[in-house]
Structures are given as structure tokens and as C-alpha cells.
């Protein structure tokens, strides 16, 4: 495999491979918060994210959601399909938390029915500003039809993952997704891990996600390992 680095992100590096249709994702032992202002080396984090995301993407694929994941090739590396990135972050919220609570001065924890869907324009320089559907269409980030597809996939993913986490006594509070174009289709890319979702224990209401790092509440690796153990059925 040739190892040309294509992109270095906060949590992952992306490399070309000999196959022009595939990329190698290398998960880093690093956590960042507050748009990269806080950055720490955390041994073991990369492999946990890689395993959790593979578990979830396998489950989604078995349930009709196409994802970029081909296979895990080591404990912290994945082979994925190369896609054309759609530069928006799609956030779905089932309960009030995080920036939504802050923005509207609301108490965390109340259910949002129907769930809230928000879009952010992916740009480190601009700090990922919020963007709405008409802006996405008018500046040609995605067509109306593509957005409809993204929204319906996001809602289906939410239903599937709420069911999955509910079996593990976890509430799926909110999450962020990214999508890419390949072969005239829109598929799920990036990762799904406690880095980009909020999971609350249904009994203790404790966070089992990156909020433990953002708020200095608990050890990140121990917390993410608990999520993986629950997913693998070893509560
Ligand atoms: O901070 P906020 O409440 O807007 O985050 C909503 C959800 O989206 C959280 O689960 C958070 O981890 C995720 N998120 C993310 N990447 C971002 C912004 C938010 O994964 N750049």
C-alpha cells in the first residue's frame, strides 16, 4: 500500500491506497474539544473509536443503510470507500443538551418530538457555522433531492440506533453524521462513536460519551470501553 496522506483531522488521518476507489482511515489516540482549543493524547482511544464505529456501521449496513466502511484492517485502521464529501455536518437531537440547551437557555434532558435536525457547514476556518436548507441548495452544496435523501437516511439511522442503544440501557441524546457521494448514491461516511454522539445511562443518567472529556467528569478510555462492552453484550 502506498501511504500518501490526504487529510489529517483532529481524530483521524486519511491515506490513499493502491486502489483508487478506497482509502485508509487511521484513528488517532487524541481527543480535542472546543474546536481544537483543548487537545490531549489519549492512548487507546483510537482503537476504541475504530471498534465502536465498525460495530455500529456493520449493524446499520445489515439494516439497509449503506456506509463507506469496507472492513477494519487493524485495531485502529479501516479501509473505506472513497467518496466525494458533502461538506455539511448533520446533527440530530432526540433530547435537549449541549449547544441547543445553551442557545435557547433550556434545561437539558427534555425530549424533542419530533427530533431536531440541524446542519453545519464544515469549515475549520469559519468554525463550522450553522447553515439552513435553502442556503445549502442555493450555494450548491447539495440539491433539494439530495437533502431529502440525507434527511430520510438520518431519521432512519436514528430509529435504528435508538433501538440498538436502548437494548444497552443507553439513551441516544444526539449525534452528528456526515455523508458522501459515490456511484450516484449518497452514503454514510466518517465515524459513529462516543466522540460524535451523546449517550446517557438510562438509570444513572451519567454521560458515556465525549462530554466526560469536555467536562472533565471521568476517564475517556474507561468510558468508551464501557460503551463497547455494552454493544458487544458484555454489560
Ligand atoms: O455541541 P452540540 O450540542 O451542538 O453537539 C451536538 C452533537 O453533535 C453532539 O453529540 C456532539 O458530539 C456532535 N458534534 C460533533 N462534531 C461537531 C459538533 C457536534 O460530533 N463538530
TrEMBL record:
UniProt pathway: Purine metabolism; IMP biosynthesis via de novo pathway; 5-amino-1-(5-phospho-D-ribosyl)imidazole-4-carboxamide from 5-amino-1-(5-phospho-D-ribosyl)imidazole-4-carboxylate: step 1/2
Mind listing the UniProt keywords for this protein, alphabetically? Answer: ATP-binding, Ligase, Nucleotide-binding, Purine biosynthesis
Q: Which residues form a coiled coil?
A: none
Q: Where is the SAICAR synthetase/ADE2 N-terminal domain?
A: 5-230
Entry's EC annotation: 6.3.2.6
Catalysed transformations (reactions): 5-amino-1-(5-phospho-D-ribosyl)imidazole-4-carboxylate + L-aspartate + ATP = (2S)-2-[5-amino-1-(5-phospho-beta-D-ribosyl)imidazole-4-carboxamido]succinate + ADP + phosphate + 2 H(+)
GO function term, MF aspect, one:
phosphoribosylaminoimidazolesuccinocarboxamide synthase activity
Domain of life (superkingdom): Bacteria
Q: Which InterPro entries match?
A: SAICAR_synt/ADE2_N, SAICAR_synt_PurC, SAICAR_synth, SAICAR_synthetase, SAICAR_synthetase_CS
Q: Name the family.
A: Belongs to the SAICAR synthetase family.
Q: What name appears for this protein in its UniProt entry?
A: Phosphoribosylaminoimidazole-succinocarboxamide synthase
Q: Which organism is it from?
A: Companilactobacillus mishanensis
The record's gene field reads: purC
